[in-house]
Amino acid sequence: MTNSIAEIDHAGTIFVIGSNTTAAHPVISHRMRRAAQNGATLIVANPKEIDLVKAADYFIQIKPGSDTALLMGMCRYIVENDLHDKKFIAKNTENFDVFEKSLEEFTPEFVEEITGVPWEQIALVARTYATKKPASIFYAMGITQHSHGTDNVMAVANLAMLTGSVGKPSTGVNPLRGQNNVQGACDLGGLPNVYPGYQRVDDKNNQEKFEKAWGVELSSEVGLTHTEIFDAILEGEIKSLYMVGENPVLTEANAKHARKALEKLDFLVSQEIFLSESGAYADVVLPAASFAEKEGSFTNTERRVQRVRQVIPPRGDSKPDWWITAQIAQAMGEDGFDFQSPDEIMAEINRVTPIYEGITYQRIEEKGLQWPCKDKKDPGTKYLHKGKFSRGKGKFMPLEYKPSAEIADKTYPLILTTDRSLYQFHTTMTRKVKGLEELESEELIKLHPIDAEQFGVEDGQWVEISSRRGTIKARAQVTDICRPGMVSMTFHFVEAPTNEITNPALDPIAKIPETKVSAVKITPVPE
Fold first, then answer.
1. Least confident of 143-147, 313-317, 330-334, 435-439
2. Cα–Cα distance between 450 and 482 in angstroms, integer?
3. DSSP state for residue 476 in the 8-state scheme
4. What pTM was computed for the model?
5. Which helix (H) or strand (E) holds 156?
6. Angstrom distance (rounded) from CA 166 to CA 137
7. Fewer CB in 10 Å around end: N or C, the chain?
8. Are 521 and 472 contacting, i.e. CB atoms less than 8 angstroms apart?
């Protein structure tokens, strides 16, 4: 997030797109509801009528995969009606003329057709976002998990810059992270193209810096993304895999592909707090400690580094992740992993990661700090890009509409989008909790009454859901929260592994699969 969670309280407009915030981020959604009650205008854009819509002033129920058209259409209306922040654009941005020309494609008629939303409604929310300030945008995987997800994110940034709604309190472009330490994992090198602190691996100066710090020779080649790893296994390029906290058998798009890859590996290690469905394929399972059994830190969605303190001793043979990894490295002859505690690791992070340099255990004993935090006196950064963008000037990106890799046709007439549940979290973890299982214990496929009637489906009936990748079964829930022509499922249940049928088509830049748009058909299962 460019801004902080507490800033939601003072926003004039809150624009939520591609996020089931109530289910996936209930604490943040509570802030949004409260802000709306106190006068903020809440706009929700989503293919499904999520629970947050109950608190919204405006609900834009777009077709799946039409986010870029919606956002660029809003930009066009703002420019044509002279609502853009000309002073901010002139001082802080570049490439506006090229961007403005690209808006010509997004005529009211075109945007209406692509999104399925009347232009008058789009114009109304565009005017609101541009005029009722400060205005903030929040998004999640409903924006990124597309074959054109990078374009979606750029369109969000275009809209924020166009109205000067970035680099100021209660504004910004705010992606909501999917798990408690996803932000921290990215910050500290859990990406294939960067060292800790987003220092690129293909930069010679960075390479030399980390070679000196770690005492090893490093490659300047960008590594493989999550999805590309499984392709490389099947192509014989990867023989062994060390898997930490991942369950691709349920979470990977076209999960059968991931299963085949795990079966082909010569050697697989799974490091987990529970034996997952993917861990069952492992040659070695390393029992990891849960958050309550270890010391350390997590970095949350607002870039806040917070202490994690051990509450109970590790159960059975489980050990903290850092200890397991360090022991393996030492057994392989690497002396640089002789850490005795997490605070020693944090001290190294301080030395090699500029955005974390001032974040020590002593300083976050009582309250976390937000990066960038450049020295021991720096109070941290409440919001990013104050005064100027980190790259100097923000760059407007000209965009064109790109359809999803799959569209509905006669064979597969419905579009499946994946969603989250309030009661189950990802895969293995929450299925162990009896109370949560009582609240939600099976997968449901949600579909509109019009589609239910067309395909002969009754509420509560079992149906087969088929795509070009395979077939699964789930119980139907007939509801008007879905648009006609689309169906919705979560991916939490091994009994109905939704990601076996989702589309693995990748965004060419971010290499993220298009799990939000998959063409499917449904067939009632006879009792």
1. 435-439
2. 10
3. E
4. 0.93
5. helix 149-162
6. 10
7. C
8. no
Residue pLDDT, tens place only, 203-220: 999 999 999 999 999 999
What's the CA gap between 300 and 310, in Å, rounded? 18
Location of structure tokens 């999640």: 140
Helices (H) and strands (E) in the chain, counts: 18, 21
Nearest to 367, CA basis, from 297, 290, 320? 297
Q: Specify the pairing of strand 462-466 against strand 471-478.
A: antiparallel
How, if at all, do strands 486-489 and 444-447 pair?
Answer: antiparallel
Query: Distance between alpha carbon 237 and the CA centroid of its chain, in Å?
Result: 28
Taking CA 283 as the corner, what is the angle to CA 277 and CA 286, rounded to the nearest 5 degrees? 75
Q: What's the distance, CA 304 to chain centroid?
A: 17
Kindly state the tokens that stand for 80. 């044509």
The radius of gyration of the chain from alpha carbons, rounded to an integer in Å, stands at: 24
Nearest by Cα to 302 from 25, 509, 10, 55: 25
Q: Is there a contact between 176 and 138 (Cβ–Cβ < 8 Å)?
A: yes
CA distance 391 to 359: 23
Residue 202 structure tokens: 């293909």
